Amino acid sequence: MTHPDDLFSPLDEPLLQRALALLDDEWLSRDADLAPVLPVVLARGVGQDWHKAGTFRHHLVGVARSLTLWGQPREVRLLGLLHSVYGNAFVDLVKFEAASERQRLQQLVGEPAEHLVHLFCTMNRGQFVQRLLAGQAQGDGSLRVELNGPAPRREVLLSAYEVAAFAVASMADTIEQWFSWQDEVFSRFPATDTTRRQTVHWAASLWPGPMRPTARMLSQVAALGRALQQHPPLAGQLPLPPVFAGCSAPLAPADEAAACALYWSVVQLDQPLVDLDGATSALEQAVRLNPWVGEPQMVLAQLYLSAGRDEDAARAARGALSQFCAWGNAWDKRVQWDAWIAWTRILLQSAEQGSWPERLDKLNNLALR
């Protein structure tokens, strides 16, 4: 059996410093590339629109934040901030009319960035994911994909750069928005089951549902990353995201689902907590199956602290921080990304100082020093 020493990645200090710069809400106003665009987008009401686990503003900014953390170039980060503003097959949120406002957006962000945004909005994104994961990218990295609309649909040939940009943006888009409600209503994405009627399956449609993390989409994100990493003409187009060991490690769908179930069983107090061994073992197994998200490691760090296992707690907290800083968004969306990092840093500080509170009320007094 794996010893706790072997479960957790060491803390990536350069990645932590990049993440810390993005923690407060003002980071976007300091970004020379994105800041001039934000007021124009906000003027279109994105802060008032519902979108998945938050507002449309939360979503657009969250995707741009991951892409910024991943060191993507200006055009790709702008794609993240604007990736659905023309609407698309999934989201009926048209903030700019493609028929009349493309020139306005081109003047704002430049033609290369606007071209990416328009193409990302108008192509069949489900088919893009399916074809890329099926290995249909050509030897030079290009990929044919249909545009949205009624049949017969026109195909376009995406360049290797466009394929890489859309794959990386799709990875960021998925981690920002996907949780169990999406698993239910977008069953089997990208081959979504469209036969289920809301009147019959109303319980699945009840937003936001139990707010479990996704049990199926991280493995797809891992596969998208590997599709880039293993195709030489695609791998050299853009910086590879630091998730899944630089997009080199796979995640089996069965392991993802099992790890999520184990994590949720502890979070929902389905494991006996009079003695911590059961909950600790469940979380350790969750980390073995899916070491690529921070939340199970963070909860495990707190259990270790409660059991007086300070060294193990410090290792778990460092591993959790590394994963949080690799994503730029939370997997467990009950709490925002910056709050997960804030609590994990408290856990790490407490483990290093051997100072975990003995009284329950003192948990409310913890502060980072």
Automatic annotation (TrEMBL):
It comes from the Bacteria. It holds the Pfam family DUF6817. Residues 42-125 form the DUF6817 domain. This is DUF6817 domain-containing protein. It comes from Melaminivora suipulveris. The lineage of its organism: Bacteria, Pseudomonadati, Pseudomonadota, Betaproteobacteria, Burkholderiales.
